[in-house]
Each structure stands twice: as C-alpha cells, then as structure tokens.
Design a protein that fits this description.
Rossmann fold; about 20% strand; alpha/beta; eight-stranded mixed β-sheet; six-stranded parallel β-sheet; about 400 residues
C-alpha cells in the first residue's frame, strides 16, 4: 500500500530540529518506521531549502521529498505561510510528473492540510496537532493576522477532510467544541514514546554531565518559546520557592534561549536541546514542570514519566486528568495564584512521594507505545483507503 503524507512545517522532517520545537517531527519519526514495517510505504512531501527536489530515505520504506519553496535558515510561521502556495504548486507538479498512485493521503498541521488540497489531494486522515482558537483562549486575534488566517483554514479542513485524528479524548472533545464539523469524523490515536526514555542514562552520570551537585534538587522546564507555555510563571514560582529552600534548589530551562538577567539565582538556560539528549536531562531532574495552558497532548509529561521523573501539570487537560486519576505527578489549580508554587514545594520536600510518583509515572507511560500508535494509524489508512485520492 502506498501512502502520501504532507508535512509542511518550519523544520525539515528528517532533522531533530532545534530542541523542543519539533514536536510534530518527533511524532512522525516515531510513526513512519512502524507504518513501513506494516507494509505502508510512505512518500512525505515537506519543505526544501534547495533549488530542486531532493529525496532522502531516513527509514526503509519512507521517502522524504523536499520541495523548494524559498524558506530561510531560521524560518518562522509567517515565512512558512508566505511560501505555502509555492510549495503546493511544486507538490502538484511533482505528483503530476511522477504518475504515482497513492492509496491514502494524510496531512499533519493546518498548513499541510491546506497544501494538500491546493495540490489537488484531499486528505483522508488529518491531524491538527493544535487548534489556534484553543491556543488563543479568550484573546481575540488581530484582523488580518496569521492567527485569523489559520482559524479560517482550520474551519475549512474540518469541513473537507474525511477523518480527523486527535491524540486524546480531551483533545477530540475540545476540537469538536471549537470546530463542530469534526463531530463524527474524529478518532483518538495517542502517540508513543521512544525506548530511550524508558531506559535513560544513570541518574548520577547525567547529573554529573550537567554539573548538578550532590544534594541539589533539580527542576526541569522543557518548552519551546511560546506565551502559552507559561515559562515566566514557572520561573517566578521557582524564584519564590528558592527564597525558602535556599541554594539546594536548581532550575534548568531547555528548549529556548533566555537572557541571564531574566533568570533568578540557581536557574540556567540550556537553550535548544536535541531530542536524543533529552533522556539524560530527564534522568538528571528530580521533577519536570509542565505549566502549559493548552496542549493537544503534550510529549514532555509522557517522556518524563517514562524516564521515572515526576511531573507537575495544570489540573486541566489530558495530563491533568491523567495525573489526578493515576498519579505520576502533581496537578495544580491553574487559576490559583500559588498553585504551581505549592505543587513545586510539595514535590521538592517529600522524597517518599517522589519515589511513589516515579513508579506511577512509569506504569502510565507503559501504555503509550509506537507499536500501538502505528497499528491504529495503519488500520485507519488501510481500512479507509481509496484507489484514487486525486480530485
């Protein structure tokens, strides 16, 4: 079975990206080898930097076709959208010239969905990954902004795609609440987690590599630059708690650059961290802070739990509900001014609780495997495949 996947985003798919900003790429690198192992050969159309189409083969059964679309070395979402029409036209020419018949078409992220339709391919399966209206909350998007364009595109996709894949029941319910046309089209397929997180480097060696002294308590905050990640809130909670606990408290912020003058004593910025190095960072940490206002799923809590590190999450959303019912961390009330700080205080003062949370987290993470994920995707694509996806 031949499968065509559109992955038009800010990072080339075969690269880890710059730390934590490539969550969708992490997902695809987990999914595609499994699909190939089940007999679904996949061509991925993604952004290219060169002047001609380049083809890479990162896994057996997977080809990535890099279509030139004029992007820069440090692309933004705005520049990605500016190049979208060029990408879609290039994809259409490539598909016409290739004469390849595909049994199923899928797309990830809203620009990928729009590109596929403009290239003449209607996605059989589509995953938003995040919904702009949910990211904005109650804020209004400025007229004519990319946020407005994106919200209109997401409405169109809800109407036109055949099937919408969400990563949790909470995500699906929230998506239907914003985009009622998804009702009846949605299915829940959670992602997996790499075995490297279930078997991270030894804690002592990991802490030594990051210069964490014996007796220190290390909080880890792993997030890409985004106001919804609430990084400033977590830093202020750490600042207040360190005034009580003293020098033993440490904080590492991974995934972005923060000026030293904006960080309190005991806090350091690791900048972008390659995904392959994250298991060691989770192993070095005593607890992982995940204060995002909205996540369609959230790979960081899952990876931390798999590594046996307790998480601190808002009491809302998928991970808030999971932690409240199954453990693995502490869930705090996001509307409480001291909720995050109180949870951080509790976890840093009780070693017995941390040991219990670590074991609970490992049990929860054991449910999320790439084998289950790829089996569900293969069943969806094979069961609903059509002989000609071209309009």
């Amino acid at each position: 079975m031949n499968h065509l996947l559109f992955s038009y985003h800010t990072c080339p798919m075969e690269e880890p990206g710059t730390g934590l900003s490539g969550g969708m790429n992490i997902f695809l690198r987990g999914l595609l080898p499994g699909l190939a192992a089940k007999g679904l050969k996949t061509d991925v159309l993604t952004r290219g930097k060169g002047t001609g189409v380049e083809i890479t083969r990162p896994f057996p059964g997977v080809r990535i076709l890099h279509i030139p679309c004029g992007w820069k070395d440090a692309p933004t979402r705005e520049s990605a959208h500016d190049s979208l029409t060029r990408f879609a036209r290039g994809a259409s020419r490539l598909l016409d010239a290739g004469g390849q018949a595909y049994d199923a078409v899928s797309a990830h992220y809203w620009m990928s969905g729009i590109a596929s339709m403009e290239a003449g391919m209607r996605p059989l399966a589509f995953a938003y990954h995040t919904i702009e209206a949910r990211k904005l909350g109650f804020a209004a998007a400025p007229p004519g902004s990319l946020s407005c364009v994106r919200m209109e595109a997401e409405k169109r996709l809800a109407l036109e795609v055949s099937h919408v894949v969400c990563f949790s029941a909470d995500d699906l319910a929230g998506t239907v609440g914003i985009l009622p046309a998804v009702e009846g089209k949605g299915t829940v397929i959670p992602p997996g987690v790499d075995d490297a997180f279930r078997n991270p480097p030894p804690r002592r060696a990991a802490r030594r590599n990051y210069g964490i002294p014996d007796g220190a308590f290390l909080f880890l905050l792993a997030a890409r630059p985004d106001p919804g990640k609430n990084v400033a809130l977590a830093i202020e909670a750490f600042r207040a708690l360190r005034a009580e606990e003293g020098d033993r408290l440490r904080l590492v912020v991974a995934g972005q650059e923060i000026p030293d003058e904006s960080l309190p004593g005991g806090a350091a910025c690791a900048g972008p961290v390659p995904h392959a190095e994250m298991p060691a960072l989770y192993s070095a940490a005593d607890a992982v802070i995940c204060p995002s206002s909205y996540e369609s799923f959230g790979l960081v809590p899952l990876e931390a739990m798999a590594a046996g590190t307790p998480v601190i999450v808002p009491g809302t959303g998928f991970w808030g509900g999971t932690v409240r019912s199954g453990g693995g961390g502490l869930a705090y009330a996001p509307e409480s001014a001291s909720g995050l700080e109180d949870a951080m205080r509790a976890v840093c003062r009780d070693a017995g609780m941390r040991a219990r949370l670590a074991e609970e987290g490992r049990r929860i993470a054991a449910r999320f495997t790439w084998e289950k994920c790829t089996e569900s995707w293969a069943r969806l694509l094979s069961g609903r495949a059509r002989p000609d996806s071209r309009r």
